[in-house]
Amino acid sequence: MQDKVTMDWTYVMTGLDAHLSDEKVRCDVEEFFNAVGRRLDVDGEAVVFPPETRVHVVEKMLVRNPEVRGGGYFLVKSVLNPTFQDGKYTGRALSGTLKIMYDLEGGWLDEFYSRAA
Predict the structure, then answer these.
(1) 99 and 76 in contact (C-beta within 8 Å)?
(2) Average pLDDT, the chain
(3) Cβ neighbour number for residue 49 with a 10 Å cutoff
(4) Element (H or E) spanning 22, and its range?
(5) DSSP per residue over 24-35, as a string?
(6) What is the maximum span of the chain, computed from C-alpha positions, in angstroms?
(7) Is the pTM above the cut of 0.85?
(8) How confident is residue 57, by pLDDT bands cut at 50, 70 and 90?
């Protein structure tokens, strides 16, 4: 059996946060909502996002994919109007989830919205 090789990923995580900060994501989501008239058509129904919609970034992922330009992309999972208890996200969002795909330079590529359960 081979010995496990461990690697310190701190510099990668720090770089990801610096390149794609939560604040940048929140600003990008706000610009997106404004660009679509603060509403999306989901399964034939309009979903409205008022100006007071709160955005909380839950996950940031670096995806290695040689099939896309630059060899990969960033995927950010954010929740809309999240609920918190004792200062911690409860895992519940009142207005759904918005996943955003960014190119490696931080440009918005695509988005995927899902309603709250």
Answers:
(1) yes
(2) 93
(3) 23
(4) helix 22-35
(5) HHHHHHHHHHHH
(6) 58
(7) yes
(8) very high
Q: Would you call 98 helix, strand, or coil by DSSP?
A: strand
Q: Which two tokens stand for residue 63?
A: 């995806």
Give the whole-angstrom CA distance, residue 78 versus residue 97: 6
CA gap 21, 74 in Å, rounded: 12
In the block, tokens 């899902």 appear at 114
pLDDT digit string (tens) for 66-84? 998 899 999 999 999 999 9
Name residue, tokens 């058509």.
41
Strands (E) in the chain, as ranges, are: 39-42, 45-48, 55-64, 72-80, 82-85, 88-93, 97-102, 108-114
Buried b / exposed e across 73-96, counting CB within 10 Å, b at 16+?
Answer: bbbbbbbbbbeeeeeeeeeebebb
